[in-house]
Amino acid sequence: MAEAIIKIQGLKTQFGDQIIHQDLDLEVRRGEILGIVGGSGTGKSVLLRTIVGLNRPAAGRIEVFGEDLSKITPAERLALEQRWGVLFQDGALFSSLTVAQNIEVPMKEHLGMPPRLRDEIAALKIAMVGLPPEAGSKYPSELSGGMRKRAGLARSLALDPDLIFLDEPTAGLDPIGAANFDQLIRQLQENLGLTVFMVTHDLDSLHAICDRIAVLADKRVLVVGPMADMLRHEHPWLREYFHGPRARAAQPKLEGVGG
Amino acid sequence: MADGWLKLAGGEGGGVLLQAGGHWDARNVTHLDRQLRGLGPMDAAQPKSDLTLDLGQVERLDTAGAWLLYRTLKEFRDSGARAEYAGLSPAHAAMLEVVAANDQPCEIEPPRSWALITILDHLGRGVLDVAEEAKQQIAFLGLILATLAGTLRHPGRLRLVPLVYHMEKVGLNALPIVGLISFLIGVVLAYQGATQLQRFGAEIFVVNLIAVSVLREIAILLTAIVVAGRSGSAFTAEIGSMVVNEEVDAMRTLGLDPIEVLVLPRVLALVITLPLLAFFADMMGLFGGMLMCWGALDISPGLFLERLQGAISPWSFWVGMIKAPVFAFLIAMVGCLEGLRVTRSAESVGQQTTRSVVTGIFLVIVFDAVFSIFFATVGV
Q1: How confident is the model at residue B301 (pLDDT cuts 50, 70, 90)?
Q2: In chain A, which among 21-80 make CB contacts under 8 A with chain B?
Q3: What average pLDDT does range A113-128 have in this prediction?
Q4: Pair (B303, B173) in one structural domain
Q5: CA A2, CA A28: separation in Å to the nearest integer?
Q6: Paired strand residues for A38
Q7: From its phi and psi, is residue B53 left (phi > 0), alpha (psi between -120 and 50) or beta?
Q8: The domain that contains B94 carries what CATH number?
Q9: Does some domain include residue B322?
Q10: Residue B128 lies in a domain
């Protein structure tokens, strides 16, 4: 088994009196694509935001790359943050900068790269995420939703991270765009040896690219495993999710596995 | 943090052998880039030297590092030399392939045109924008008046609860700030006026100065400016965020008229409350002046009030008050119009809000000038 790149133990998060996670344990292994699913309001995005440090956990321990996030100094955290990339739902591009300038932001801020090299690497990332060269000089408002996500992905890859977090990468894309985006993620993951932590609702993505799936329910991770395990599991929510009418449409090749 | 390094060694047959090692990743590319650029394939001394890039000791290679190697190789090849990798591991070869497959130069910024042309372009667009804005405001004025006329024929359609709610927000809640500002201006006027008029021994005329300036101009103007900043902007932001949220479109599909539901209650609320606020500002301004006269000039409140009655006619008061509903209408109209002009981005809410305040204050002052000319002509 590959080493764990993210290790969460006994995590508890809450907003006011409302407890989102309680005793949540999860491990993400190096080089895998882990899909996080769960009903609305089960705290999938909150979990992502907690790991990258946008929320403070109330209790528990989160280790990323073997370092306990609650015990590191700000400088160590900064170094750590350069080793992961985050893609927010609608790309979260800076609207006053062009796509290429967006990708250059982390290179300029953290690595102080000279402008010519930045331009070259930005062009490379734009090509890697499948955007046409004209897209580089466009502003986010001039792009379609799918292109904004690709641009956001390019920015999250700007510093060649080992780990990327994706928040609903295919939400709001048409089925063809979503399938292409899935393939892009898989391809980048294989080429660059990335570890991918992906919050998603898209059953097609789960089937097509996720190595393992973690199901959030009852304030914790109910079960983690490959698709075949999900289809066999007896929990009512899982049965409904993975065997509902939409799920059946999404799993033609696996017919008969779950029954 | 591990370093990446580069060594230049003379290769066999006059070629160049470059040995790369360590971590060739995004964290190290800055100095590696400098070294590689210094190398330059166009070096006059070695016009077409062959290159061998030995990657045997590279421990870590990411796309940024691979790009540098690929770029160097390409530059040498483009100059007509032979260039090759050596000591490639399968993982490094794969990474170099990814980079080679994605070699696609792109533009970083949209092309810039000449400064003079840009300035003229901005100027032209600015003029057209002002014309367009004026047209929209007049059209919107018509729309509000038409809707108002419709409501007057069917008074049941007037939305009372929102009307009262907005009256509280723009009127009642503005009392402290409007009162405080007017009071302080009264104090300032009395003090400044007194120091000037004392030189002529005419300090008693401070009362005339305060009464005329506060009642005719200052109280209403200050109130209108405070309200434009406070409520005009709030109208724009409220309606604008509803536009962003598609609430206004939803209203239209449900057969509700946004002018009737959103605009009219706000306009009426301000038209009703701004005169009241202006009256309050009048009183506070006079009160501030009176206190200052008493404290600094020994003009007792009794004497002040007596002089006041001699100094002003009822028209001094009405000149100020007549302006209030007009200013209120302008502020509310601009606030609502700018709100409805928000496009579907959060950024435009901010832009339109700024615009609403600036336009609101500008129109208030323009109309104040128009009123001054008018009153001077009719002689009040």
Answers
A1: very high
A2: none
A3: 90
A4: yes
A5: 9
A6: A216
A7: beta
A8: 3.30.750.24
A9: yes
A10: no
Task: Assess whether pLDDT exceeds 70 at residue B99.
Answer: yes
Residue-level pLDDT at A257: 45
Digit-coded pLDDT (tens) for A40-77: 888 888 999 999 888 888 888 898 988 888 888 888 88
All residues at 6 or more sequence positions from A120 whose CB lies less than 8 Å from its CB, including other chains: B67, B71, B105
Which has the minimum average pLDDT: A34-38, B276-280, B361-365?
A: A34-38
Question: Are residues B108 and A117, on separate chains, in Cβ contact within 8 Å?
Answer: no
Model pLDDT for residues A185-214, shown as the tens digit of each residue? 888 888 888 899 999 888 888 888 899 999
Q: How many domains does chain B have?
A: 2
| B31, pLDDT greater than 70 | yes
B224-247 average pLDDT score: 94
Structure tokens at B249: 């479109």
> Which has more confidence, B15 or B203?
B203
Residues B372, B264 within the same domain = yes
Among the three residues B101, B130, B146, which one is the final residue of a domain in this structure?
B101
Average pLDDT value over all residues in chain B: 89
For B222, list phi and psi in degrees, rounded to 5. Answer: -65, -45
Q: Is the pLDDT of residue A258 over 70?
A: no
> Packing angle between helix A115-128 and helix A99-106, nearest 10 degrees?
110
Write b or e for each residue in A223-246: b if 16 or more Cβ atoms lie within 10 A of its Cβ, otherwise e: ebeebeebbebeeebbbebbeeee
Tell me the residues of chain A between 112 and 151 that have a Cβ less than 8 Å away from chain B: 112-114, 117, 119-128, 133-138, 141
DSSP string, B245-313: TTHHHHHHHTT--HIIIIIHHHHHHHHHHHHHHHHHHHHHHHHHHHHHHHHHH---HHHHHHHHHHH--
Q: Are residues B253 and B366 in the same domain?
A: yes
| Residue B120, CA distances (Å) to B109, B116, B281 in order | 21, 6, 45
- Closest alpha carbon within chain B to A107: B26
Edge-to-edge strands of the sheet including A67-68? A18-29, A4-15, A59-64, A67-68
The shortest CB-CB distance from A192 to any of B34, B63, B111 is to: B63
Is B298 inside a domain boundary? yes
B113: DSSP letter:
-
A4-251, CATH topology level: Rossmann fold (3.40.50)
Asked if the Cβ–Cβ distance from B107 to A126 is below 8 Å, we say: no
pLDDT value at B302 more than 50: yes
Tell me if B132 is assigned to some domain.
no
* ipTM (interface predicted TM): 0.80
Range of the domain at B8: 4-40+48-101
